[in-house]
Amino acid sequence: MENLPLYGNVRELSNIIERTVILCEKPVIDETLLRETIDSSPLTVAPISAASSGKLKDLQKEVILSTLEQCSGNKAADAKVLGIGPSTLWRKMKKYELT
Known about the structure:
Blueprint: H1 10-23, H2 31-39, H3 56-70, H4 75-82, H5 86-95
Helix pairs in contact: 1-2, 3-4, 4-5
């Protein structure tokens, strides 16, 4: 695992392992499945664009939109990826007029 391309934090690693366990149909998780899970992970947030104003609200809005796209619009998955509760995501989406 030390040589795998993990670029996030402990929460990201935990989510990747959880997803791999769910997807694994064999009693042992092999490197191939782990790599596939990492490569398809919606946790890799797209880089913030250079055009961002730098304001926190604009950055939050951009991250929410990016993760929503990566999660195919699944708000529960988006909230989990962001490490916030679904109600917090809903409030932020309402605040930033993303609903």
